[in-house]
Each structure stands twice: as structure tokens, then as C-alpha cells.
Amino acid sequence: MGYKNKTYVIFDGDEDIWAYGFMVGWKKSEHIDFNFFNAHDVNEIRNGTLETTVKKKLKERIGDTKQAVVLVGPKTKNLFRYVRWEIETMLELGIPIVASNLNQKRRVDPDLCPPILRDTCTVHVGFRAKIIQRALDNFCDNFANFRGKADLYYGDDVYRQLGLPL
Q1: Cα separation of 62 and 65, whole Å?
Q2: Residue 57 CA from chain centroid, whole number
Q3: Which side of the chain, N or C, has fewer Cβ within a 10 Å radius?
Q4: Terminal Cα-to-Cα distance of the chain (whole angstroms)
Q5: For 6-161, CATH number?
Q6: What is the tens place of the pLDDT at every residue in 129-158?
Q7: What is the rounded CA–CA span in Å between residue 94 and residue 117?
Q8: How far apart are the C-alpha atoms of 93 and 108, rounded to whole Å?
Q9: Residue ranges per structural domain of the chain
């Protein structure tokens, strides 16, 4: 497998595409330094494509993934066909995951977090560019040091240091 350098973004393509759009904007305007895949933008996949074909294409993209961001919105926990499968694949491959709560909660949100992510070595953050970047730089780059820990989060002091409102 080649060098892994991408951030794979998992989200509800029907409800939370706006959040992915924000991330695209952050990359440009705030100079966020990560390359990421929109899992929903896979070449050769159209409505009506077989699920096995879609998963095969997604698995190819996951093969070049260093880390993942799950955008946790109001319906994310109910999506099983692809979102759950993508998360499950990341966990099986030992790829670090940042769960970003679109409602700005800074810890695991038991009401919205997909059950498969609960009690895993995942860091949960609010949906803000600076804290997502911090998690990608610190948590993901040092993932091996966090093994065995679950439902991680950053305290208010880190958000304060980043200039994010409490």
C-alpha cells in the first residue's frame, strides 16, 4: 500500500453536505492543511449502482487514508448501509477517527453518536476548523499512544487556547 496521507470524511450526504462544504471552505480560507476525500464523490458511481460496487470503490479510497473525520449530525447514527460500514472499516483497519459534532458538543453526544463509535478510541470535538485541525495533528498523529482509551475529548482550556468560544 502506498503512503497514506488523506483524511477521509464520513457524513450523511443528504442532510449534512453543508458541513462538508464548510470544510472545503476552511481548507481554502483558513489554510487548513489536510487533504480529504468526500466519500460521496466517487467516480463511476451513479444512482442505482450496486452496493457492492460502491463499497469496493470506497474501500479503494480508504486504502489511501491516514485518518478519518465523522461529521455527527442529527441522523448519522441511523445510517447503516454506508456510514456505519465506513466507520466499521476504519475501526477494523486501526485508522484514527475524529468525531465532529455538528451541534457543537465537545464530548461524545450519546443521543447522536453512532453506537459503533461509542466506547472506541475516538476523539470527539465540536464542529470548528481549529479544533478539528488540532485533533488531526495531535490525536491522529499520536494515535498509538491513545490505544485502550475511549470517548476522548479536549477540555475547555484547549478550546480557549485556540480562541474558540466556550
Answers
A1: 5
A2: 18
A3: N
A4: 42
A5: 3.40.50.11200
A6: 999 999 999 999 999 999 899 999 999 999
A7: 13
A8: 22
A9: 6-161
